[in-house]
Amino acid sequence: MADEKTHIVLCGGSPLPKNYKGVAASHLHRFSYDHNSKERNINIGLPHFIKTVNCHFPDRIKDLVEIAGYIYAADRMIKRGNPEQVEYHSWARKFHFHIKVRDYNFWKQKQISERLNDALCFIAGDLDYKFTFIKGGQDVGQKNLFDNEKIKLEKKDNSVIALFSGGLDSLAGALEKLETTNQNLILVSHRSNNFTVSQIQENVFNLLNNDYPNRIQYFTFYCNLSGERAVEETQRTRIFLYSSIAYALMSLSSQKQILVFENGMTSINFYKRQDAMNARASRTTHPQTIALLENILSFISGETIELVHPFLYNTKTDIVEKIKMYKKQHYLNSTISCTRTFQSFSNNSQATHCGGCSQCIDRRIAAYASHQEDFDAIYDADISKDSIEDKEAWTHLCDYINLAYRFSKMNGMSFNYELFDVLQDIIPFLKGNERNTDKMKKIFELTQKHTDQVFHALQRIRLNENIRKPKKGNTIFNFIDSRVYLKPSVERLIERISEKLMIALPIACERQKPNSENALNDLIKALIMAESDDYSREFPVIKFSYTKTVPDHSYLDCNLFIETKYLRGDTTKNVVTKSIAEDLVKYGDKHKLFVLYDPERKITDEQEFKNDFEKYPNCKILRIG
User: Fold this and answer.
1) Are residues 444 and 505 in the same domain?
2) I need a labelling partner for 142 at 20 to 30 A (CA). Which of 230, 388, 444, 489 fits?
3) Are 578 and 604 spatial neighbours (Cβ–Cβ below 8 Å)?
Protein backbone atom coordinates (compact mmCIF):
# COMPACT_ATOMS: atom_id res chain seq x y z
CA MET A 1 0.00 0.00 0.00
CA ALA A 2 1.29 3.45 -0.87
CA ASP A 3 2.06 6.15 1.63
CA GLU A 4 -1.10 8.26 1.92
CA LYS A 5 0.88 11.29 0.75
CA THR A 6 2.18 9.54 -2.38
CA HIS A 7 0.61 10.50 -5.71
CA ILE A 8 -0.13 7.39 -7.79
CA VAL A 9 0.32 8.20 -11.48
CA LEU A 10 -1.07 5.67 -13.98
CA CYS A 11 0.27 6.30 -17.48
CA GLY A 12 -0.87 5.10 -20.88
CA GLY A 13 -3.59 2.78 -19.62
CA SER A 14 -1.56 1.20 -16.81
CA PRO A 15 -3.92 -0.58 -14.40
CA LEU A 16 -4.33 0.33 -10.76
CA PRO A 17 -2.70 -2.39 -8.61
CA LYS A 18 -5.11 -4.15 -6.25
CA ASN A 19 -3.26 -2.98 -3.14
CA TYR A 20 -3.90 0.65 -4.17
CA LYS A 21 -7.69 0.41 -4.34
CA GLY A 22 -8.12 2.65 -1.31
CA VAL A 23 -6.04 5.56 -2.61
CA ALA A 24 -7.76 8.93 -2.21
CA ALA A 25 -9.07 10.43 -5.46
CA SER A 26 -6.90 13.51 -4.89
CA HIS A 27 -3.79 11.30 -5.03
CA LEU A 28 -4.76 9.09 -7.98
CA HIS A 29 -3.97 10.43 -11.45
CA ARG A 30 -4.34 8.94 -14.91
CA PHE A 31 -2.50 10.27 -17.95
CA SER A 32 -3.02 9.32 -21.56
CA TYR A 33 -2.05 10.94 -24.85
CA ASP A 34 -3.86 8.41 -27.04
CA HIS A 35 -6.32 10.29 -29.27
CA ASN A 36 -8.53 7.21 -29.31
CA SER A 37 -8.80 7.10 -25.53
CA LYS A 38 -11.56 8.80 -23.55
CA GLU A 39 -8.98 9.38 -20.81
CA ARG A 40 -6.73 11.49 -23.05
CA ASN A 41 -5.69 14.52 -21.02
CA ILE A 42 -2.14 15.28 -22.15
CA ASN A 43 -0.27 15.70 -25.39
CA ILE A 44 3.09 13.98 -25.85
CA GLY A 45 4.11 14.72 -29.41
CA LEU A 46 6.11 11.55 -30.06
CA PRO A 47 4.15 10.49 -33.19
CA HIS A 48 4.47 13.98 -34.69
CA PHE A 49 8.15 14.09 -33.73
CA ILE A 50 8.89 10.79 -35.51
CA LYS A 51 7.00 12.03 -38.56
CA THR A 52 8.95 15.31 -38.57
CA VAL A 53 12.34 13.66 -38.22
CA ASN A 54 11.42 10.85 -40.64
CA CYS A 55 13.55 8.10 -39.18
CA HIS A 56 13.43 5.08 -36.91
CA PHE A 57 13.75 5.51 -33.15
CA PRO A 58 14.64 2.44 -31.06
CA ASP A 59 12.07 1.30 -28.49
CA ARG A 60 14.22 2.39 -25.55
CA ILE A 61 14.39 5.96 -26.85
CA LYS A 62 10.63 6.06 -27.45
CA ASP A 63 10.13 4.83 -23.89
CA LEU A 64 12.48 7.50 -22.54
CA VAL A 65 10.67 10.34 -24.30
CA GLU A 66 7.27 9.06 -23.12
CA ILE A 67 8.53 8.66 -19.54
CA ALA A 68 9.91 12.21 -19.59
CA GLY A 69 6.60 13.48 -20.99
CA TYR A 70 4.55 11.76 -18.28
CA ILE A 71 6.84 13.11 -15.56
CA TYR A 72 6.58 16.63 -16.97
CA ALA A 73 2.77 16.38 -17.13
CA ALA A 74 2.56 15.16 -13.53
CA ASP A 75 4.92 17.90 -12.38
CA ARG A 76 2.59 20.52 -13.86
CA MET A 77 -0.71 18.90 -12.89
CA ILE A 78 -0.01 17.92 -9.29
CA LYS A 79 0.18 20.86 -6.91
CA ARG A 80 2.83 21.37 -4.31
CA GLY A 81 2.08 22.69 -0.83
CA ASN A 82 0.84 26.23 -0.31
CA PRO A 83 3.46 28.98 -0.72
CA GLU A 84 3.25 29.86 2.97
CA GLN A 85 4.26 26.37 4.06
CA VAL A 86 7.82 26.50 5.33
CA GLU A 87 8.63 22.84 5.91
CA TYR A 88 10.27 20.91 3.10
CA HIS A 89 7.95 17.92 3.65
CA SER A 90 4.89 20.19 3.28
CA TRP A 91 6.12 21.68 0.02
CA ALA A 92 7.68 18.65 -1.68
CA ARG A 93 5.78 15.76 -3.23
CA LYS A 94 6.01 11.97 -3.55
CA PHE A 95 5.23 10.12 -6.78
CA HIS A 96 4.79 6.52 -7.85
CA PHE A 97 4.59 6.21 -11.64
CA HIS A 98 3.19 3.12 -13.36
CA ILE A 99 4.26 3.19 -17.01
CA LYS A 100 3.94 0.70 -19.85
CA VAL A 101 7.19 0.34 -21.79
CA ARG A 102 8.40 -1.42 -24.93
CA ASP A 103 11.93 -2.31 -23.78
CA TYR A 104 10.84 -3.89 -20.51
CA ASN A 105 14.06 -5.83 -19.88
CA PHE A 106 16.00 -2.58 -19.74
CA TRP A 107 13.57 -0.49 -17.68
CA LYS A 108 12.96 -3.20 -15.07
CA GLN A 109 16.54 -2.78 -13.86
CA LYS A 110 16.83 -1.31 -10.39
CA GLN A 111 19.72 0.94 -11.47
CA ILE A 112 17.64 3.01 -13.90
CA SER A 113 14.86 3.65 -11.35
CA GLU A 114 17.47 4.72 -8.81
CA ARG A 115 19.11 7.09 -11.27
CA LEU A 116 15.75 8.61 -12.20
CA ASN A 117 14.82 9.08 -8.54
CA ASP A 118 18.15 10.72 -7.64
CA ALA A 119 17.97 13.14 -10.55
CA LEU A 120 14.30 14.08 -10.29
CA CYS A 121 14.32 14.57 -6.51
CA PHE A 122 17.21 17.02 -6.85
CA ILE A 123 15.88 18.80 -9.94
CA ALA A 124 12.31 19.18 -8.71
CA GLY A 125 13.02 19.44 -4.98
CA ASP A 126 10.60 16.58 -4.32
CA LEU A 127 10.79 13.74 -1.80
CA ASP A 128 10.49 10.60 -3.88
CA TYR A 129 9.99 9.28 -7.41
CA LYS A 130 9.18 5.57 -7.60
CA PHE A 131 8.65 3.69 -10.86
CA THR A 132 6.86 0.50 -11.75
CA PHE A 133 7.46 -0.37 -15.39
CA ILE A 134 5.02 -2.73 -17.08
CA LYS A 135 5.30 -4.79 -20.26
CA GLY A 136 3.12 -3.72 -23.14
CA GLY A 137 4.17 -0.26 -24.28
CA GLN A 138 2.91 0.48 -27.79
CA ASP A 139 3.15 3.25 -30.34
CA VAL A 140 0.24 5.69 -30.27
CA GLY A 141 -1.49 6.66 -33.50
CA GLN A 142 -0.86 5.53 -37.03
CA LYS A 143 2.47 3.82 -37.71
CA ASN A 144 4.86 6.14 -39.54
CA LEU A 145 6.33 4.72 -42.75
CA PHE A 146 9.77 6.05 -41.86
CA ASP A 147 9.75 4.42 -38.40
CA ASN A 148 11.57 1.41 -39.76
CA GLU A 149 14.87 -0.03 -38.56
CA LYS A 150 16.23 0.10 -42.11
CA ILE A 151 15.79 3.88 -42.27
CA LYS A 152 18.60 5.75 -40.52
CA LEU A 153 19.09 9.47 -40.26
CA GLU A 154 21.82 10.91 -42.40
CA LYS A 155 24.39 12.19 -39.96
CA LYS A 156 25.18 15.87 -40.51
CA ASP A 157 28.94 16.34 -40.50
CA ASN A 158 30.55 18.55 -37.88
CA SER A 159 27.29 19.14 -36.04
CA VAL A 160 26.32 19.52 -32.40
CA ILE A 161 22.98 19.46 -30.57
CA ALA A 162 21.90 22.41 -28.41
CA LEU A 163 18.84 23.06 -26.27
CA PHE A 164 17.00 26.11 -27.57
CA SER A 165 14.43 27.94 -25.45
CA GLY A 166 14.24 31.18 -27.42
CA GLY A 167 15.79 33.06 -24.49
CA LEU A 168 18.88 35.26 -24.34
CA ASP A 169 21.23 32.51 -23.19
CA SER A 170 20.34 29.93 -25.85
CA LEU A 171 20.48 32.69 -28.49
CA ALA A 172 23.94 33.78 -27.34
CA GLY A 173 25.10 30.17 -27.36
CA ALA A 174 23.84 29.60 -30.89
CA LEU A 175 25.48 32.82 -32.08
CA GLU A 176 28.79 31.94 -30.47
CA LYS A 177 28.88 28.54 -32.17
CA LEU A 178 27.88 29.97 -35.54
CA GLU A 179 30.29 32.92 -35.33
CA THR A 180 33.38 31.27 -33.87
CA THR A 181 33.29 27.73 -35.30
CA ASN A 182 32.36 26.01 -38.53
CA GLN A 183 30.05 23.62 -36.69
CA ASN A 184 26.47 23.12 -37.74
CA LEU A 185 23.74 23.36 -35.12
CA ILE A 186 20.87 21.02 -34.34
CA LEU A 187 18.51 23.05 -32.17
CA VAL A 188 15.90 21.35 -29.98
CA SER A 189 12.88 23.13 -28.46
CA HIS A 190 10.07 22.00 -26.22
CA ARG A 191 6.69 23.55 -26.92
CA SER A 192 3.69 23.63 -24.65
CA ASN A 193 0.32 25.16 -25.48
CA ASN A 194 1.69 28.66 -24.84
CA PHE A 195 1.33 30.34 -28.22
CA THR A 196 3.46 33.34 -27.24
CA VAL A 197 6.52 31.26 -26.37
CA SER A 198 6.14 29.06 -29.47
CA GLN A 199 5.90 32.11 -31.73
CA ILE A 200 8.97 33.70 -30.14
CA GLN A 201 11.02 30.52 -30.53
CA GLU A 202 10.04 30.39 -34.20
CA ASN A 203 10.89 34.07 -34.72
CA VAL A 204 14.35 33.72 -33.18
CA PHE A 205 15.06 30.62 -35.25
CA ASN A 206 14.01 32.47 -38.42
CA LEU A 207 16.40 35.32 -37.60
CA LEU A 208 19.25 32.85 -37.14
CA ASN A 209 18.36 30.85 -40.22
CA ASN A 210 18.29 33.97 -42.40
CA ASP A 211 21.72 35.11 -41.19
CA TYR A 212 23.31 31.65 -41.16
CA PRO A 213 21.65 29.69 -43.99
CA ASN A 214 22.14 25.92 -44.30
CA ARG A 215 23.85 25.65 -40.92
CA ILE A 216 20.89 24.98 -38.63
CA GLN A 217 18.41 22.16 -38.26
CA TYR A 218 15.52 22.91 -35.92
CA PHE A 219 13.28 20.35 -34.23
CA THR A 220 10.36 21.04 -31.90
CA PHE A 221 8.65 18.64 -29.54
CA TYR A 222 5.13 19.27 -28.24
CA CYS A 223 4.24 18.21 -24.71
CA ASN A 224 1.48 19.82 -22.69
CA LEU A 225 -1.68 19.31 -20.70
CA SER A 226 -4.79 18.96 -22.83
CA GLY A 227 -7.74 21.17 -21.95
CA GLU A 228 -6.62 21.93 -18.39
CA ARG A 229 -4.74 24.82 -16.87
CA ALA A 230 -1.55 23.74 -15.09
CA VAL A 231 -1.74 24.17 -11.31
CA GLU A 232 2.06 24.07 -10.94
CA GLU A 233 3.90 26.53 -13.18
CA THR A 234 7.44 26.00 -11.91
CA GLN A 235 8.14 23.32 -14.58
CA ARG A 236 11.22 22.03 -12.75
CA THR A 237 11.30 18.71 -14.65
CA ARG A 238 11.25 20.28 -18.10
CA ILE A 239 15.04 19.95 -18.32
CA PHE A 240 14.66 16.15 -18.18
CA LEU A 241 12.15 16.28 -21.04
CA TYR A 242 14.40 18.68 -22.98
CA SER A 243 17.51 16.54 -22.59
CA SER A 244 15.59 13.35 -23.44
CA ILE A 245 14.41 14.87 -26.72
CA ALA A 246 17.95 16.04 -27.49
CA TYR A 247 19.30 12.57 -26.74
CA ALA A 248 16.71 11.06 -29.11
CA LEU A 249 18.24 13.17 -31.89
CA MET A 250 21.82 12.31 -31.04
CA SER A 251 22.11 9.99 -34.04
CA LEU A 252 21.94 13.18 -36.14
CA SER A 253 25.00 14.64 -34.48
CA SER A 254 28.66 13.93 -35.07
CA GLN A 255 29.35 14.33 -31.32
CA LYS A 256 28.07 12.64 -28.16
CA GLN A 257 27.36 16.02 -26.60
CA ILE A 258 24.36 18.16 -25.78
CA LEU A 259 24.99 21.89 -25.31
CA VAL A 260 23.10 23.57 -22.47
CA PHE A 261 23.38 27.36 -22.61
CA GLU A 262 22.57 29.10 -19.32
CA ASN A 263 24.46 31.78 -17.42
CA GLY A 264 26.09 30.68 -14.19
CA MET A 265 24.14 32.94 -11.84
CA THR A 266 20.87 31.45 -13.06
CA SER A 267 22.22 27.89 -13.09
CA ILE A 268 23.59 28.01 -9.56
CA ASN A 269 20.63 30.12 -8.40
CA PHE A 270 21.95 31.26 -5.05
CA TYR A 271 18.82 31.32 -2.93
CA LYS A 272 17.86 34.81 -1.90
CA ARG A 273 16.30 33.69 1.38
CA GLN A 274 15.88 30.47 3.33
CA ASP A 275 12.42 29.69 1.91
CA ALA A 276 13.91 29.51 -1.59
CA MET A 277 15.67 26.29 -0.72
CA ASN A 278 14.62 22.87 -2.06
CA ALA A 279 11.72 23.04 -4.52
CA ARG A 280 11.51 26.81 -4.32
CA ALA A 281 14.88 27.32 -5.97
CA SER A 282 15.11 26.28 -9.61
CA ARG A 283 17.85 23.76 -10.35
CA THR A 284 17.12 23.14 -14.01
CA THR A 285 20.72 23.68 -15.20
CA HIS A 286 22.53 23.38 -11.88
CA PRO A 287 25.93 21.59 -12.18
CA GLN A 288 24.58 18.70 -10.12
CA THR A 289 21.54 18.46 -12.40
CA ILE A 290 23.84 18.28 -15.41
CA ALA A 291 25.83 15.45 -13.80
CA LEU A 292 22.71 13.50 -12.81
CA LEU A 293 21.23 13.77 -16.31
CA GLU A 294 24.53 12.64 -17.83
CA ASN A 295 24.38 9.64 -15.51
CA ILE A 296 20.90 8.67 -16.77
CA LEU A 297 21.59 9.18 -20.46
CA SER A 298 24.94 7.38 -20.33
CA PHE A 299 23.31 4.38 -18.63
CA ILE A 300 20.58 4.30 -21.28
CA SER A 301 23.11 4.66 -24.09
CA GLY A 302 25.78 2.31 -22.80
CA GLU A 303 28.41 4.94 -23.64
CA THR A 304 29.40 8.31 -22.21
CA ILE A 305 26.98 11.13 -23.02
CA GLU A 306 28.13 14.63 -22.08
CA LEU A 307 26.01 17.69 -21.33
CA VAL A 308 28.25 20.70 -21.89
CA HIS A 309 27.61 23.92 -19.94
CA PRO A 310 29.71 26.60 -21.73
CA PHE A 311 28.35 29.67 -19.89
CA LEU A 312 28.74 28.48 -16.29
CA TYR A 313 31.16 31.30 -15.46
CA ASN A 314 29.21 33.98 -17.30
CA THR A 315 26.58 36.36 -15.92
CA LYS A 316 23.40 37.51 -17.65
CA THR A 317 25.19 40.76 -18.52
CA ASP A 318 27.97 38.73 -20.14
CA ILE A 319 25.31 36.99 -22.24
CA VAL A 320 23.93 40.29 -23.52
CA GLU A 321 27.50 41.47 -24.17
CA LYS A 322 28.09 38.41 -26.36
CA ILE A 323 25.01 39.19 -28.45
CA LYS A 324 26.23 42.79 -28.74
CA MET A 325 29.73 41.61 -29.75
CA TYR A 326 28.28 39.65 -32.66
CA LYS A 327 26.28 42.75 -33.68
CA LYS A 328 22.92 41.06 -33.19
CA GLN A 329 21.39 43.55 -30.75
CA HIS A 330 18.32 43.70 -32.96
CA TYR A 331 17.64 40.08 -31.96
CA LEU A 332 17.21 41.03 -28.29
CA ASN A 333 13.57 42.11 -28.36
CA SER A 334 12.64 38.90 -30.18
CA THR A 335 13.74 36.67 -27.29
CA ILE A 336 11.76 35.59 -24.23
CA SER A 337 12.85 35.46 -20.58
CA CYS A 338 9.59 35.99 -18.66
CA THR A 339 8.20 33.23 -16.44
CA ARG A 340 4.68 34.66 -16.55
CA THR A 341 3.88 34.48 -20.24
CA PHE A 342 0.73 32.54 -19.35
CA GLN A 343 -0.71 35.70 -17.75
CA SER A 344 -2.40 38.57 -19.53
CA PHE A 345 -0.71 41.94 -19.07
CA SER A 346 -2.79 44.88 -17.86
CA ASN A 347 -0.55 47.93 -18.32
CA ASN A 348 0.80 47.48 -21.83
CA SER A 349 -0.99 45.37 -24.42
CA GLN A 350 2.19 45.27 -26.53
CA ALA A 351 4.29 43.81 -23.71
CA THR A 352 6.03 40.46 -24.10
CA HIS A 353 7.41 40.44 -20.55
CA CYS A 354 5.76 41.10 -17.18
CA GLY A 355 8.77 43.00 -15.83
CA GLY A 356 8.37 41.78 -12.26
CA CYS A 357 9.40 38.13 -12.19
CA SER A 358 12.97 37.28 -11.22
CA GLN A 359 13.95 36.52 -14.82
CA CYS A 360 12.58 39.84 -16.11
CA ILE A 361 14.41 41.76 -13.40
CA ASP A 362 17.67 39.95 -14.16
CA ARG A 363 17.21 40.66 -17.87
CA ARG A 364 16.42 44.36 -17.43
CA ILE A 365 19.37 44.89 -15.10
CA ALA A 366 21.65 43.09 -17.57
CA ALA A 367 20.38 45.26 -20.44
CA TYR A 368 21.34 48.41 -18.51
CA ALA A 369 24.66 46.97 -17.33
CA SER A 370 25.61 46.26 -20.96
CA HIS A 371 24.17 49.57 -22.27
CA GLN A 372 21.68 47.71 -24.46
CA GLU A 373 18.44 48.82 -22.79
CA ASP A 374 17.10 50.43 -25.98
CA PHE A 375 17.20 47.05 -27.75
CA ASP A 376 15.47 45.20 -24.93
CA ALA A 377 11.96 43.74 -24.81
CA ILE A 378 8.71 45.57 -23.97
CA TYR A 379 7.67 45.19 -20.33
CA ASP A 380 4.23 45.43 -18.78
CA ALA A 381 5.92 47.21 -15.87
CA ASP A 382 9.43 48.45 -16.58
CA ILE A 383 11.43 48.54 -13.35
CA SER A 384 13.73 51.20 -14.80
CA LYS A 385 10.96 53.83 -14.84
CA ASP A 386 7.49 52.58 -13.82
CA SER A 387 5.84 52.29 -10.43
CA ILE A 388 6.09 48.76 -9.07
CA GLU A 389 2.63 47.99 -7.72
CA ASP A 390 2.93 44.21 -7.62
CA LYS A 391 4.08 43.07 -4.16
CA GLU A 392 5.79 39.97 -5.53
CA ALA A 393 7.71 42.06 -8.06
CA TRP A 394 8.83 44.41 -5.29
CA THR A 395 10.07 41.42 -3.29
CA HIS A 396 11.90 39.94 -6.28
CA LEU A 397 13.65 43.26 -6.90
CA CYS A 398 14.59 43.72 -3.26
CA ASP A 399 15.90 40.17 -2.92
CA TYR A 400 17.82 40.45 -6.20
CA ILE A 401 19.66 43.61 -5.18
CA ASN A 402 20.09 42.48 -1.57
CA LEU A 403 21.86 39.34 -2.83
CA ALA A 404 24.27 41.46 -4.88
CA TYR A 405 24.85 43.69 -1.84
CA ARG A 406 25.60 40.64 0.34
CA PHE A 407 28.09 39.40 -2.25
CA SER A 408 29.76 42.83 -2.25
CA LYS A 409 30.49 42.50 1.49
CA MET A 410 32.23 39.13 1.10
CA ASN A 411 35.82 38.17 0.45
CA GLY A 412 36.97 34.76 -0.73
CA MET A 413 37.16 33.32 2.77
CA SER A 414 33.80 34.62 4.03
CA PHE A 415 32.14 33.56 0.77
CA ASN A 416 33.31 29.96 1.24
CA TYR A 417 32.18 29.99 4.87
CA GLU A 418 28.78 31.66 4.48
CA LEU A 419 27.80 29.73 1.36
CA PHE A 420 29.30 26.39 2.29
CA ASP A 421 25.95 24.57 1.97
CA VAL A 422 25.50 25.95 -1.56
CA LEU A 423 29.06 25.21 -2.63
CA GLN A 424 29.00 21.61 -1.43
CA ASP A 425 26.20 20.95 -3.94
CA ILE A 426 28.25 22.53 -6.74
CA ILE A 427 31.99 21.90 -6.40
CA PRO A 428 32.00 18.06 -6.68
CA PHE A 429 30.11 18.33 -9.97
CA LEU A 430 32.24 20.96 -11.70
CA LYS A 431 34.24 19.50 -14.57
CA GLY A 432 37.97 19.89 -14.90
CA ASN A 433 41.09 18.85 -13.01
CA GLU A 434 41.42 22.03 -10.97
CA ARG A 435 41.70 21.92 -7.21
CA ASN A 436 38.48 22.49 -5.29
CA THR A 437 39.87 25.75 -3.93
CA ASP A 438 40.38 27.00 -7.49
CA LYS A 439 36.84 26.01 -8.44
CA MET A 440 35.47 27.85 -5.41
CA LYS A 441 37.50 30.89 -6.39
CA LYS A 442 35.95 30.87 -9.88
CA ILE A 443 32.44 30.77 -8.40
CA PHE A 444 33.33 33.62 -6.03
CA GLU A 445 34.71 35.68 -8.93
CA LEU A 446 31.47 35.04 -10.83
CA THR A 447 29.45 36.54 -7.96
CA GLN A 448 31.74 39.57 -7.73
CA LYS A 449 31.47 40.24 -11.45
CA HIS A 450 27.68 39.94 -11.20
CA THR A 451 27.62 42.35 -8.25
CA ASP A 452 29.67 45.00 -10.05
CA GLN A 453 27.40 44.74 -13.09
CA VAL A 454 24.21 45.03 -11.01
CA PHE A 455 25.36 48.20 -9.25
CA HIS A 456 26.63 49.70 -12.50
CA ALA A 457 23.15 49.11 -13.95
CA LEU A 458 21.49 50.75 -10.93
CA GLN A 459 23.73 53.80 -11.25
CA ARG A 460 22.65 54.15 -14.88
CA ILE A 461 18.97 53.58 -14.07
CA ARG A 462 19.11 56.42 -11.52
CA LEU A 463 19.83 58.81 -14.40
CA ASN A 464 16.29 58.14 -15.70
CA GLU A 465 14.71 60.06 -12.82
CA ASN A 466 13.36 63.43 -13.90
CA ILE A 467 14.11 65.82 -11.04
CA ARG A 468 11.77 68.43 -12.56
CA LYS A 469 8.75 66.23 -11.93
CA PRO A 470 7.19 65.13 -8.63
CA LYS A 471 8.41 61.82 -7.32
CA LYS A 472 6.27 58.80 -8.15
CA GLY A 473 5.67 56.22 -5.45
CA ASN A 474 6.88 52.62 -5.48
CA THR A 475 9.59 53.18 -8.08
CA ILE A 476 13.13 51.88 -8.21
CA PHE A 477 14.24 55.46 -7.46
CA ASN A 478 12.43 55.35 -4.08
CA PHE A 479 13.89 51.93 -3.58
CA ILE A 480 17.46 53.10 -4.17
CA ASP A 481 17.04 56.33 -2.18
CA SER A 482 15.78 54.47 0.90
CA ARG A 483 18.49 51.79 0.59
CA VAL A 484 15.87 49.23 1.58
CA TYR A 485 17.86 46.54 -0.21
CA LEU A 486 20.62 46.92 2.40
CA LYS A 487 18.30 45.39 4.99
CA PRO A 488 17.69 41.65 5.34
CA SER A 489 14.13 40.54 4.66
CA VAL A 490 13.51 39.89 8.36
CA GLU A 491 14.23 43.54 9.18
CA ARG A 492 11.94 44.69 6.40
CA LEU A 493 9.24 42.44 7.80
CA ILE A 494 9.70 43.90 11.29
CA GLU A 495 9.30 47.40 9.87
CA ARG A 496 6.11 46.45 8.01
CA ILE A 497 4.53 44.90 11.09
CA SER A 498 5.60 47.80 13.30
CA GLU A 499 4.13 50.38 10.91
CA LYS A 500 0.86 48.46 10.82
CA LEU A 501 0.57 48.07 14.59
CA MET A 502 1.56 51.68 15.36
CA ILE A 503 -1.47 52.88 13.41
CA ALA A 504 -3.99 50.09 13.85
CA LEU A 505 -3.60 49.11 17.51
CA PRO A 506 -4.45 52.53 19.05
CA ILE A 507 -7.51 52.79 16.80
CA ALA A 508 -8.65 49.28 17.72
CA CYS A 509 -8.24 50.03 21.45
CA GLU A 510 -9.72 53.54 21.37
CA ARG A 511 -13.16 52.63 22.74
CA GLN A 512 -12.24 49.63 24.85
CA LYS A 513 -8.88 48.39 26.04
CA PRO A 514 -8.16 44.63 26.04
CA ASN A 515 -8.96 43.12 29.44
CA SER A 516 -5.97 40.77 29.46
CA GLU A 517 -2.72 40.03 27.69
CA ASN A 518 -4.40 37.07 25.97
CA ALA A 519 -7.06 39.42 24.60
CA LEU A 520 -4.30 41.75 23.41
CA ASN A 521 -2.60 38.82 21.69
CA ASP A 522 -5.86 37.94 19.92
CA LEU A 523 -6.26 41.52 18.76
CA ILE A 524 -2.70 41.71 17.42
CA LYS A 525 -3.22 38.38 15.70
CA ALA A 526 -6.31 39.74 13.94
CA LEU A 527 -4.50 42.90 12.85
CA ILE A 528 -1.60 40.93 11.41
CA MET A 529 -3.88 38.40 9.72
CA ALA A 530 -5.70 41.25 7.99
CA GLU A 531 -2.44 41.95 6.14
CA SER A 532 -1.46 38.31 5.66
CA ASP A 533 -1.97 38.31 1.89
CA ASP A 534 0.38 41.26 1.47
CA TYR A 535 2.94 39.70 3.82
CA SER A 536 2.74 36.43 1.87
CA ARG A 537 3.54 38.27 -1.35
CA GLU A 538 6.31 40.42 0.08
CA PHE A 539 7.73 37.78 2.42
CA PRO A 540 6.65 34.57 0.72
CA VAL A 541 6.86 32.33 3.77
CA ILE A 542 5.05 33.49 6.91
CA LYS A 543 4.17 30.97 9.58
CA PHE A 544 2.20 31.82 12.71
CA SER A 545 2.31 29.75 15.87
CA TYR A 546 -0.21 30.26 18.66
CA THR A 547 0.84 27.99 21.49
CA LYS A 548 1.94 28.68 25.05
CA THR A 549 5.31 27.04 24.52
CA VAL A 550 6.45 29.45 21.82
CA PRO A 551 6.15 33.22 21.36
CA ASP A 552 2.81 34.85 20.78
CA HIS A 553 3.36 35.06 17.02
CA SER A 554 6.32 33.45 15.24
CA TYR A 555 7.67 33.92 11.74
CA LEU A 556 9.91 30.87 11.63
CA ASP A 557 11.17 31.40 8.09
CA CYS A 558 12.89 34.62 9.13
CA ASN A 559 13.81 33.45 12.63
CA LEU A 560 11.61 36.26 13.92
CA PHE A 561 9.69 36.01 17.17
CA ILE A 562 7.06 38.52 18.25
CA GLU A 563 6.38 38.94 21.96
CA THR A 564 3.59 41.09 23.39
CA LYS A 565 3.85 42.84 26.78
CA TYR A 566 0.82 44.61 28.29
CA LEU A 567 1.74 47.33 30.81
CA ARG A 568 -1.20 48.04 33.10
CA GLY A 569 -2.05 47.85 36.79
CA ASP A 570 0.57 45.80 38.63
CA THR A 571 2.55 45.14 35.44
CA THR A 572 5.21 47.79 35.93
CA LYS A 573 8.19 48.81 33.88
CA ASN A 574 10.44 46.69 36.13
CA VAL A 575 8.28 43.61 35.58
CA VAL A 576 8.44 44.04 31.81
CA THR A 577 12.19 44.73 31.92
CA LYS A 578 12.78 41.43 33.73
CA SER A 579 10.50 39.55 31.32
CA ILE A 580 12.28 40.93 28.23
CA ALA A 581 15.69 40.10 29.75
CA GLU A 582 14.57 36.49 30.19
CA ASP A 583 13.31 36.37 26.60
CA LEU A 584 16.65 37.67 25.31
CA VAL A 585 18.34 34.68 26.90
CA LYS A 586 15.65 32.28 25.68
CA TYR A 587 15.74 33.34 22.01
CA GLY A 588 19.47 33.96 21.70
CA ASP A 589 20.48 35.44 18.34
CA LYS A 590 17.05 35.02 16.73
CA HIS A 591 15.30 38.18 15.58
CA LYS A 592 12.91 39.48 18.22
CA LEU A 593 10.19 42.13 18.11
CA PHE A 594 8.81 43.13 21.51
CA VAL A 595 5.46 44.92 21.20
CA LEU A 596 4.83 46.90 24.40
CA TYR A 597 1.28 48.18 24.76
CA ASP A 598 1.56 50.95 27.36
CA PRO A 599 -1.71 52.92 27.53
CA GLU A 600 -0.90 54.17 31.06
CA ARG A 601 2.53 55.43 29.93
CA LYS A 602 4.46 53.54 32.56
CA ILE A 603 7.58 53.89 30.41
CA THR A 604 8.45 57.59 30.55
CA ASP A 605 11.98 57.42 29.13
CA GLU A 606 11.11 55.53 25.95
CA GLN A 607 14.34 56.12 24.01
CA GLU A 608 16.54 55.14 26.93
CA PHE A 609 14.42 52.03 27.49
CA LYS A 610 14.75 51.04 23.82
CA ASN A 611 18.49 51.69 23.77
CA ASP A 612 19.03 49.42 26.79
CA PHE A 613 17.62 46.46 24.87
CA GLU A 614 18.30 47.25 21.22
CA LYS A 615 22.03 47.15 21.92
CA TYR A 616 21.58 43.37 21.96
CA PRO A 617 21.73 41.55 18.60
CA ASN A 618 18.54 41.37 16.55
CA CYS A 619 16.30 42.99 19.15
CA LYS A 620 13.64 45.58 18.34
CA ILE A 621 11.36 47.38 20.82
CA LEU A 622 8.02 48.77 19.65
CA ARG A 623 6.18 50.81 22.29
CA ILE A 624 2.56 51.75 21.58
CA GLY A 625 0.37 53.74 23.91
Assistant:
1) no
2) 230
3) no
